[in-house]
Amino acid sequence: MSKFTISNIVLTLLALLSFILEVVEFSYSWVVLILGLLVYVCVLICGVVNVRWQFFMPIICEIPNSEKEIFLSFDDGPQEQSEAVLDLLKKHEIKANFFCIGKHLEENPILAQRLFTEGHFVGNHSYLHEVKFPAKSVTNIIAELEKTNELIERLSGSKSEYFRPPFGVSNPNIAKAVTSLNMKCIGWTIRSFDTSDSKGSKALQKIKKELKSGDIVLLHDHSPHVLTILEGLLPFLKENNYKTQRIDIALRVNEKS
């Protein structure tokens, strides 16, 4: 049972309680109901925008392990700067995780193929990544995911099982679509906010300060300063004996153990 379902049950019980209080002529029954509604709305909003709450469905936000493995992930590619990101990862012999927009896979076939050829993990990040994506119907969300899954399968030869929601937003429709396709939803432990960092230094320090074994780090390969961040982060990982791993491989290992 999801936290969303539990919240709805609690709200229903609260409404019933308010009705009973009204029947017995309790003067503040309406106050109880209004306060309950306000709390419900606040919780709902937090559940929508915070993937780590796993409010509507299970979302994998970390992969605990004893090997000091962490998971670098990049959203929204492949785009022009993805080539430089791949060059840097190759130089440091790093395997990363890319949650790609389907349309970008179509528009950048050479870069898309390079992701697979160089051994990186590629997950589904919707086909269009529109601002209105969370407001779409279950049918339209499924269509986007299936279209991107087909592109990934065509390029890699294997089916895609993993999805990261655009903007990290989840809701009942997204949950239904993901569940119906038997996909796993991937979130993150550390959100670097690299796209809003004017120099990249704040994002780098945030990652260094918070990083621990099992963390999934969110970056964007189109971020203006992602190369600066990686140039500081990759040596830090090596100096502190962190290993980078593909999300799908780590999850399969966990399933077997």
UniProtKB/TrEMBL annotation:
Superkingdom: Bacteria
PANTHER family linked to this entry: CHITIN DEACETYLASE 1-RELATED, GLYCOSYL TRANSFERASE-RELATED
Protein name as it appears in the record: Polysaccharide deacetylase
Gene3D superfamilies, per database record: Glycoside hydrolase/deacetylase (3.20.20.370)
GO cellular component: membrane
Keyword Lyase: no
GO biological process, alphabetically ordered: carbohydrate metabolic process
Listed transmembrane segments: 7-24, 30-51
InterPro entries in alphabetical order: Glyco_hydro/deAcase_b/a-brl, NODB_dom, Polysacc_deacetylase_ArnD
CDD domains: CE4_NodB_like_6s_7s
Record domain NodB homology: where: 68-245
GO molecular function, one term: metal ion binding
Species per Swiss-Prot/TrEMBL record: Labilibaculum antarcticum
Keywords (A to Z) from UniProt: Hydrolase, Membrane, Metal-binding, Transmembrane, Transmembrane helix
Taxon lineage: Bacteria, Pseudomonadati, Bacteroidota, Bacteroidia, Marinilabiliales
